[in-house]
Specification:
Blueprint: E1 5-9, E2 21-28, H1 31-44, E3 48-51, E4 57-58, E5 63-70, E6 75-80, E7 84-90, H2 95-104, H3 123-126, E8 129-130, E9 133-134, E10 139-146, E11 152-156, H4 157-160, E12 177-187, H5 199-205, H6 213-227, E13 236-239, E14 245-246, H7 248-257, E15 264-265, E16 271-272, H8 275-281, E17 288-289, E18 292-294, E19 301-304, H9 310-328, E20 337-338
Parallel strand pairs: 2-5, 3-5, 4-20
Antiparallel strand pairs: 1-2, 6-7, 7-12, 8-9, 10-11, 10-12, 13-19, 14-16, 15-16, 17-18, 18-19
Bound molecules: uridine-diphosphate-2(N-acetylglucosaminyl) butyric acid (EPU).
Length: 339
């Protein structure tokens, strides 16, 4: 029987370690637990909030209704042919563990996404990405439960409307579904994406010529650990903002004023500007405001030295947005889900 707690503190469940209280709270370990939680929500007319790894969420107020911490775990190979394999991960599984499993089996496609914090079930919501690869590139389908009706629904890639750090689960279907399992389609032969960042340089430094999937995973871990703070020692929620995408015209104008402005190709012919650069140029890199600051090695990450309140976090967020707007006339939008 599912244990449902009342007035439960959520402080420990987000990687940025900013807490709040939930009216009701339960940890899910199985599909049966989920169905019990759905029945409770229906009977008592309580809305549901689903929590995965808590790596992309900031609680800014008391959470009404039932919060579900998803710990439904498992990884399984479900089908294999000569060129590809389908691997299923249950949604409460750690994303990094899932990637490590695929790398250990020499299934190719997810290696650049190693060490992204969070769960398998949160990966499609955000369409997580790193080093030139996105979740959607290897996605096959997912199974979700409607939180209101309890009905199961299969989502294909087209159904998910993936975009840059975006999907239907952040828009039309926000808060509507519990993602139960995700199936990825992976290649049995390598097609490494080495073009982004310093992957090639790191491999060369190590004198690796015949590249194996484990080498990529190790190099990605090294790059990430060198630049990104480990939330276990310095609470944070990864990139706090998205990289803004602007028109080519607007980019040209900015380039006239700031010739060194970095850029990457964006969606739909747009140009993506690293928000980390904009924040650094606006003077916020490493600058401390009480217990919070934008991280000194990667200005896109907001870190909590300990004990920060949502108010303190949001005050810094607003300062950063205002400064970037003033200097570059660009609007930053949050990547982190603020609820
Ligand atoms: N930059 C600066 N100063 C900074 C940080 C970055 O000038 O303090 C500039 C540099 O020119 C650098 C460029 O920004 O070359 C890009 O930086 P980085 O490679 O660190 O990537 P990012 O665009 O800041 C994105 C993702 C990360 C992902 C990396 C690597 C977003 C919002 N973030 O960051 O994802 O790990 O690329 O692919 O798209 C996350 O989403 O939580 C996350 C960590």
């Amino acid at each position: 029987m599912l244990k449902i707690e009342t007035n439960h503190s959520l402080g420990q469940y987000t990687t940025i370690k900013v807490g709040t209280i939930a009216d009701y709270f339960a940890v899910l370990k199985s599909k049966a637990d989920l169905l019990e939680a759905l029945a409770f929500s229906k009977k008592n007319k309580q809305p549901i909030t689903v929590l995965g790894g808590g790596s992309n969420i900031l609680f800014s107020q008391r959470i009404k209704g039932l919060v579900l911490k998803n710990e439904i775990k498992g990884i399984k190979i479900i089908e294999k042919n000569k060129t590809r394999v389908l691997v299923e991960g249950l949604s409460g599984e750690s994303w990094s563990k899932f990637v490590a499993f695929t790398a250990d089996h020499k299934f190719y496609g997810l290696e650049n996404l190693f060490l992204i914090y969070g769960t398998v079930g949160a990966a499609p919501v955000q369409n997580i990405g790193a080093y030139g690869v996105e979740f959607k590139d290897s996605f096959h389908h997912l199974l979700a439960f409607d939180l209101k009706t309890g009905q199961e629904k299969i989502f294909s890639s087209a159904d998910c409307h993936f975009g840059y750090r975006d999907s239907v689960f952040k828009n039309k279907f926000k808060g509507r579904y519990f993602i139960y399992s995700v199936v990825m389609s992976l290649a049995l032969k390598p097609n490494f994406q080495l073009g982004y960042g310093s992957i090639k340089e790191k491999l060369a430094e190590k004198g690796i010529k015949k590249i194996k999937i484990r080498d990529i995973v190790n190099v990605i871990a090294e790059i990430r650990n060198g630049k990104l703070p480990n939330p276990q020692s310095l609470p944070n929620s990864g990139s706090f903002f998205k990289n803004p995408e602007i028109s080519k015209l607007k980019f040209k104008k900015l380039q006239q004023k700031y010739s060194e402005i970095p850029s990457f190709p964006g969606q739909a012919n747009k140009v993506k500007i690293p928000a980390g650069w904009l924040i650094e140029q606006s003077g916020f890199k490493g600058k401390k405001f009480g217990p919070v600051r934008m991280y000194e090695k990667q200005a896109l990450i907001l870190v909590n030295e300990g004990g920060a309140s949502a108010k303190q976090v949001l005050s810094l967020v607003n300062k950063v947005k205002a400064a970037v707007k003033k200097k570059f006339d660009l609007d930053l939008s949050e990547e982190v889900n603020i609820i």
